[in-house]
Amino acid sequence: MPALDLAGFPAREGAPLRRPWLRELRATLALSAPLVLINLAQHGLIMADVVMLGRLGAEQLAAATLAHGLYFILFIGGIGLTSTVAPLIAEALGREPGATDPVRRTLRAGFWAATLIAAPMMVLLWYTGPLLAAIGEPPALAEAAGAYMRVLQWAMWPALLFMGLRGALAALERPGWALAASLAALPLNVAIGIWLAFPASNAFPTGLDLGMAGVGLATVTAATFSLVLLIAVVLCDRRLHRYRLFHRLWRFDPVLLGRVFRLGLPIVATGLAEAGLFEAAALGMGLFGATQLAAHAVAIQIAAFCFMVPNGVAQAATVRVGLAYGRRDGAGVRRSGLVALGLAFCFMTLCAGVQLTAPATLTGLFLDLGAPSNTGVLPVAVAFIGFAALFAVADGVQSVCLGMLRGLQDTTVPMWVAVGGYWGLGVPLGAGLAWGAGFEGYGIWTGFCAGLFVVAGLLLLRWRRLTTGLLPRPAAG
């Protein structure tokens, strides 16, 4: 009887054992590097918007922060469905290398899921202004955020379709085209944003001075452009022709779509639990005034920029673990996960060091520190960046652990871990310290740290239990 390796997987005998860890490191780096760059490029779009909005003024930045929070909490929910494309395709290719039908059908189901989820989310976003006013946000901020969102919301559908196609290309270990499309969209977003948002200048003599609406319209244009460009280059790539990725894209596949939703809905809940933590913090910051909200926006953008690297490593871990899972290679599953975890841990430790040593310099990248209206923002932003440094490592670890577990198609237990850690601990603790103890925004950031550390620790325990065979093989979803 063969030895059992992972949750009943037979050990692969006769496989080459020479330097397997180095081979895995190379494979993970080769896949994660373009995925990280894609994340950085896409987050660069967000950061460019924040910089442009910051140049419009602290009030505009505060209003846009409220709008961005609502947009991205829903967008992350949509990503939860489209992110199932990568592990499903990876498992299919691990089980049957060179298969084409499951690749095409899975991408098609991902596109259908993105479309079905985008429509109601865009309707909800249309009423951002009234929603913010109803929960007590200052009327001027709520009105400005609502007007901005009625432009920004149109980026939702093309952005989700892009994420689904990117996941398919990652599982095929061909992420370069998605990187090219993301990089091409970045300068386009900046150029159009400056042209539309600001008054005429020497660089843009025809500047339209549309303010926040101009920034939002630039984001919509960039999202649509990146999707169209990615579809075009995929159609021209001879190495992808045999997959016929867009063949009969209109066909409805209820069986596979049901599998996408079963696997993806716990991922949606997990993403919403984490995103909801940050959105609750932004809403709470708004109640403490524009100064703390603007400082929070700066600190969150810095933390989010650093997070793009472990997030890309996590996406690579999903594919690498999924391929090993599909071929029933337990040792390969463990090796893929641990390599990805080590990469994320090292990088986020470096990020934490930079945030602790140069917070004022980082703040100056987003706000004009010489402007009188921003004088009070700097000391608050410096303090918040210090908190962000504290949870940087935990944030990277939890992200990669989620990617590793998704490669095993284990999504339900991580969902409950995230909901419990963020909403059972992080939000109540942050609220208690902010309002009960009078620490305001500093208390909210303390809740951040506590929730992230607990979630990271529990997800590590979940991975350890599954990969040491103490639990039965996880079922999809």
UniProtKB/TrEMBL annotation:
Signal sequence segment: none
Family matches, as Pfam families: MatE
InterPro entries documented for this protein: MATE_fam (IPR002528), MATE_MdtK (IPR050222)
Annotated TM spans: 68-89, 109-127, 147-165, 177-198, 210-235, 256-273, 293-317, 338-356, 376-394, 415-436, 442-461
Molecular function (Gene Ontology), one example: xenobiotic transmembrane transporter activity
Keyword flag Membrane: yes
Database matches in PANTHER family: FMN_FAD EXPORTER YEEO-RELATED, MULTIDRUG RESISTANCE PROTEIN NORM-RELATED
Name recorded for this polypeptide: MATE family efflux transporter
Species annotation: Methylobacterium radiodurans
